[in-house]
Amino acid sequence: MSVPVRRLLALPEWAGTVRVMAGAEGLDRTVALPRPVSDLSPEHTVGAGELVVATGPMPQGDWRIDALLRRVADAAGAGVLLPATALLEGTRRLADRLAVPLLTATSEPLDLLVAARLLLAEPELDRAELVLATHRALGERPRPPEEVVTALATVLRAPVALLDDGGTPVAGELRDPGLVRVAEPVPQRVALDDGVLLAHPVPLPSAPRPALWLATELRGAAAERAESVPQALAVAAGAAQRWLLTHRLELERDARARSALLGDLLRIDGEPGDDLRRRAADAGWRLGGWHVGIRIGTTSAVDNVARGAEVTRALRAVDIDAIVVEHGDGWTAWITVDEEPTATRVRALGKRLRAAHHELRATMGAHMGVGRPHAGPDGLAATVAEASDAARLAATRPESGTFLHVDQLGMAQLLLEWTRTDTFEPAARALLAPLRGQPGDLVRTLATYLDAESSITETAAVLGVHRNTVAARIERVERELGVDLRHRDERLALHLACRTVTLADS
């Protein structure tokens, strides 16, 4: 095996003790055999790839140094290593011109020679030492990402970072983290201007792509260890994977308990029992006060257990401290306050939630619904139900940004109330109230128009009026109610309201 001279400079025994005095352009010359020389006799024949290591004292300005440099250049040798000595300027210029590395050492040359020969004779030694050092630094217990990164950075003496599946560091720092191709689940090596970037995936079983990436930047002399570092990265990636799996089990256990508690709260009929109240208190959930429900829905492809913290962060970023529970395909959340929120506070809350939804929608395609304020334990179930209904509607409404607040649903709220027959008729009458007492029997005209599948001609025939009269009445209906009858949800809601009111009146 042969290695470039610069690779020897990266050895722990060489680092900090060996200086490049001249001939830096020749640091890529390969060393096949470092040989000790007690003197610089002209009879010494230099072989190809030989690094001449002078072990004896070296007088200042010895002419034999210049002669040795020429012999090394002629024989395609690797370079010359001398004990610390003062070199003439002419000798340095000669080494530069010949591109022969001229090195000096402050430590014992024979110790350096042994380290170099061990590297050449045992190419796996450095690799094994790094792997063992990494194992010792990480130990057996699962360590969080920050500790894995810190331990590996100490072993490698290079910057290390743990990147998420978007390439953003979650622990540690790198100068160029964006160079890691996170979509490719294989170890990577990327050339840098002054070194190399190495990355290793941290996969989870059955996951379509790695959850995290462990990466390091080896720059300058540290880049010469690039062949040995990947195995140490793999060991550290295994430690990060153990932490992920352990943490995942804890998250899933907690998610199941929280989801079960939420289900019990949503199913209560009347006041909760002592056991349910104690479980809620243990979870830090308040049952008293006023609650506002939030439902965040996603596709089944989104890992809601792993990304629950992301939802909590998005809400806290807009100053909303909510309880967030993994629930079905998404999350059910709510906030609790002591006093009934005013209309102004509810509108302000809606704006902040829309901002949080905007962030979540960009990363996971979420849709969000928000319920009205309700008091007490049964109020929690009511507002969560409203938020869930609103979220289902929001998923089908890209024009609303897939965000709906129950208070802002208008007529579409009638669709939600259809399953609550005791409240549907009053809501329907309130909706159609602006049409009552208006000339032209607008309620009957609207009902006929919707029965006729929005055909003005058929409506005119049923009512026995001119089609222009029908068109004018429908325009007045849209103006009085502030609706657009081209919208299918509003059309259906009005149709149900008209049927309910007319049947009740008849």
TrEMBL record:
UniProt xrefs under Pfam families: GGDEF_2 (PF17853), HTH_30 (PF13556)
The domain of life for this entry's organism is Bacteria
Using the record's annotation, list all stretches that form the CdaR GGDEF-like domain. 270-393
Q: Which InterPro entries match?
A: CdaR-like_regulators (IPR051448), CdaR_GGDEF (IPR041522), PucR_C-HTH_dom (IPR025736), PucR_C-HTH_sf (IPR042070)
PucR C-terminal helix-turn-helix domain spans which residues?
442-499
Q: What would be an example GO MF term here?
A: DNA binding
Q: Which UniProt keywords apply?
A: DNA-binding
Signal peptide limits: none
Bilayer-spanning residue ranges? none
| Protein family membership | Belongs to the CdaR family.
Protein name, per record: DNA-binding PucR family transcriptional regulator
Source organism of this protein record = Prauserella shujinwangii
Q: What is the lineage of its organism?
A: Bacteria, Bacillati, Actinomycetota, Actinomycetes, Pseudonocardiales
